């Protein structure tokens, strides 16, 4: 049995939740209170005790991008990376560069001076990228889309950041939300806003 140490508001955890839903894998959830994390979490994922952490038969794996790749290999159907090596590398590159969006996102959340401008620039770059491809993973939905979606959903539905100026992002979000795995995350985000 798999266990996910999870927090509903955590977008990194959302990456793992979406992959598990895509794979239709049964798992247990241990919900962590981020404001009061148990001491054993720091042993599972030293030194900061961050979530998500995946556990399988006593074996423990932190880091959302690594968890997602592990799940994709452990449960190969449906595949969430392209079969072509160059296309796989391109998708991994997009995941690797996530902080180009993540850093301005968290700066904006911290209300740092100039952060809205930096976030707008990052969204423009993402929009331009999505203008040339149906999905961040390439021709099909996959790990690169899952790596970014949780932040876009939170920007739109929790922070009220308008995404209309980014038509390719809006089109991509709309298509992705048609998937039950992503629709479930939209519900989770709505429950945070309530
Ligand atoms: N690089 C980690 C980041 C995970 C992360 O930052 N999780 C947050 C919750 S969204 C956390 O546990 N924060 C607690 C802390 O940083 O002390 C990943 O991709 O899994």
Q: What characteristic shape results from the CA principal axes?
A: globular
Q: What is the rounded Rg?
A: 16 Å
**Order of strands, widest sheet:** 2-1-3-4
String of helices and strands = EHEHEEHHHHHHH
Could you please describe the fold and organization of this structure?
The protein has helices at 11-23, 39-44, 64-74, 85-96, 99-109, 115-130, 143-157, 167-176, 180-193; strands at residues 2-6, 27-31, 53-56, 59-62. The chain has a four-stranded mixed beta sheet with strand order 2-1-3-4, with helices on one face. The relative contact order is 0.14. It is α+β, with helices and mostly antiparallel strands. The structure holds glutathione. Residues 7, 10, 12, 34, 48, 50-52, 63-65 line the site of glutathione.
Describe the structure using short key phrases.
binds glutathione; alpha+beta; 56% helix
Secondary structure elements and pairings:
Elements: E1 2-6, H1 11-23, E2 27-31, H2 39-44, E3 53-56, E4 59-62, H3 64-74, H4 85-96, H5 99-109, H6 115-130, H7 143-157, H8 167-176, H9 180-193
Parallel strand pairs: 1-2
Antiparallel strand pairs: 1-3, 3-4
Helix pairs in contact: 1-3, 1-7, 1-9, 4-7, 5-6, 6-8, 7-9
This protein binds glutathione.
């Amino acid at each position: 049995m798999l266990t996910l140490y999870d927090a509903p508001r955590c977008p990194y955890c959302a990456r793992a939740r979406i992959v598990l839903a895509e794979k239709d894998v049964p798992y247990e959830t241990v919900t962590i209170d981020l404001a009061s994390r148990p001491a054993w979490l720091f042993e599972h994922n030293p030194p900061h005790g961050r979530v998500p952490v995946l556990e399988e038969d006593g074996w423990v794996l932190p880091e959302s991008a690594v968890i997602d790749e592990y799940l994709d290999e452990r449960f190969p159907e449906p595949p969430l990376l392209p079969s072509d090596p160059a296309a796989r590398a391109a998708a991994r590159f997009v995941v690797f560069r996530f902080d180009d969006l993540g850093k301005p996102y968290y700066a904006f959340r911290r209300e740092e001076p100039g952060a809205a401008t930096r976030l707008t620039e990052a969204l423009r770059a993402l929009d331009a990228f999505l203008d040339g491809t149906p999905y961040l993973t390439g021709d099909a939905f996959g790990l690169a889309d899952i790596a970014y979606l949780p932040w876009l959903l939170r920007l739109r539905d929790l922070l009220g950041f308008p995404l209309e100026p980014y038509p390719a992002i809006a089109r991509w979000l709309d298509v992705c939300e048609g998937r039950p795995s992503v629709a479930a995350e939209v519900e989770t985000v709505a429950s945070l806003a309530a």
